[in-house]
Amino acid sequence: MKSSAPRKTNPPNKLSGLAALVCLVPAPTLGILAATYWWPDSALGQALFLASKAWLVAFPAAWLLFVEHGRLSWSPPHRGGFVFSAILGLALAAVVLAAYGLVAHMGWIDHQGVARQAARTGLNRWPVFVVGAIYWITLNSLMEEYVWRWFVFRQCEVLLGARWAVIASALGFTLHHVVALQAQFNWGITTAASLGVFVGGTIWSALYLRYRSIWPCYLSHAIVDMPIFLIGYWLIFRTA
C-alpha cells in the first residue's frame, strides 16, 4: 500500500504573521470596551465580551490548522523549567503583595469604587467571587498563555526576531489590561498595575522563548494570580 504524502505545512511568514496579529490582538480590548464602556450592564455588551473570549480561543487554533496547515499540540514541556518558573512566580507574587501594601498605605485605592464595580459584576457575592477566582487562576491564565505566549509570540518572532518578540507580545498582553483596570481604578493605580502586567508578560514571554512550552509560563502566571485575588477579597469583603 502506498503511504500518504506528508502534510505540507505553511509556517508563519511576515505577511501572515502581521495578518494574524491584526485579527487577534484588538479582540480582548474591544470586548472589554463593549462590556464596560460602550454598552455596560447590557446583554449586548456581555455578549460581545464573551464573543471576544471565544475568538481568542478559536482563532489561534483555526489559524494554525487552516492557514499554517500545522497540527495541534499540547505544548509538551520537553525542556522542563517548572522549578525556575515557580520561583519566579513566588517572587512576582511577593512583589504584588508589597506593591499593594504600598499603594494602600498611600491611600491611592478607592475602596468604595472597587466595591461598586464588584457589585455591577456580581463579584461582591461570595460564591461568585470564589468561582471567578478559580476560573481566572486556572482557566483564564492558561488561555492567556496559549494566546499571548504561544500564538502571539510566534507571530511576533517571525516579524521582529525572538528578543523583540518578548517585548511586543508583552505589550499586546498589557493593552487590554490597561482598559480593564481603568474601568475600576484611577490612573495612578492603573499605570502601576499595567506596568506590573507588562513586567509579568515580559517574564512569561522570556520563559516561553527559553523553554518553548506554555506550561512553565502557566505555572508562574497562576501563582501570581493568587495574591491578586487575595487582594480582591480584602478590598471587596473585608473593607466594605
Provide a concise account of the structure shown:
With 240 residues, this protein is mainly alpha-helical. Helices cover 79% and strands 0% of the residues.
Can you describe this structure?
The chain has helices spanning 14-24, 26-38, 43-67, 82-105, 111-121, 126-160, 162-182, 187-211, 214-238. Helix 4 (82-105) packs parallel to helix 9. Mean pLDDT is 92; it is low at 1-5. It is an all-alpha fold and 240 residues long.
Provide tags for this entry.
mainly alpha; 79% helix; 240 residues; 9 helices
Output the helix-strand order: HHHHHHHHH
Number of helices: 9
Q: Report the mean per-residue pLDDT as an integer.
A: 92
Kindly, what is the distance between the CA atoms of the first and last residues, rounded to a whole number of angstroms?
A: 73 Å
| Strand tally | 0
Largest sheet properties:
none
User: Which radius of gyration do the C-alpha atoms yield?
Assistant: 19 Å
User: Which bin fits the share of residues in helices?
Assistant: over 70%
> In percent, how much strand structure appears in the residues?
under 5%
Ranges where pLDDT stays below 50 over 5 or more residues in a row are 1-5
Shape: globular
SS content category: mainly alpha
